[in-house]
Amino acid sequence: MKIRVLGCHGSQLPNHNTTSFLLEKNVLMDAGTVTPVLTLEEQLRIDYIFVTHAHLDHVRDIMFLVDNLSYAKRERPLIICSSRGIIENIHRHLFNDVIWPDFSKIPSARAPLIKFEILTPGRKKVLGDMQVRAIGVHHTVETMGFMLESQGKTVLFLGDTGPTDGVWKAARAVKDLKAIFVETSLPGSMQDIADKTGHLTPVTLACELKKLKNAKPDIYLYHMKPRYAGVISREVAAIQNRKIHIVKDGQVIRL
Ligand SMILES: [Zn+2]
Ligand SMILES: [Zn+2]
Questions:
Q1: Which domains does the chain possess?
Q2: pLDDT average, residue stretch 93-115
């Protein structure tokens, strides 16, 4: 499985893009940064976007991507996948004919540019050559992690989250889970703010990783606030007995 990191930060600054991962050529995990990075040809190949939650740093470029697809006259729809509540947030607050056109009716309701695919949390669904399961995590708004199986490999993407349980239990139950992508937004000195805003620090990350017990997937950390990346990295280095990698914008990961 090939995963290209289009953006992996918790805020935007020059050379620091907000969250989006491209799986193979046609699947996006979140869409914080897509159109400034992918060529139009690459954008036209995208079939699915899994959305962890409706915060702007994870959905912003769905808008510009759809706009590009519309002028490129693409015929098949872009499928936006998430739980019912998250889909409703996106539809009501973004594609509402005020902030952005409602592309689920453009060019026509019968053949629109976007379609919404509602995933029931905890239930597996087959989409293309993937099997996917949404699992709720603990952020300030409704947020899903996604367990995704493709080409015989299983990967877990957690969205923004503070301490949570169900998703770690699900991770333990998967035989040969290859990798977990998990956020670490703030340093330990900002634990208070992290708790209030539903994020992890290296301190709470270490506690969360203990919930994996004997499972040892590769751990990929992302969603750092850029100004704290140095101190977070130093704090993470103290976590023992785990294969932890800090993700970089533009990196290509092969599992
Ligand atoms: Zn975020
Ligand atoms: Zn968020």
A1: 2-254 (3.60.15.10)
A2: 96
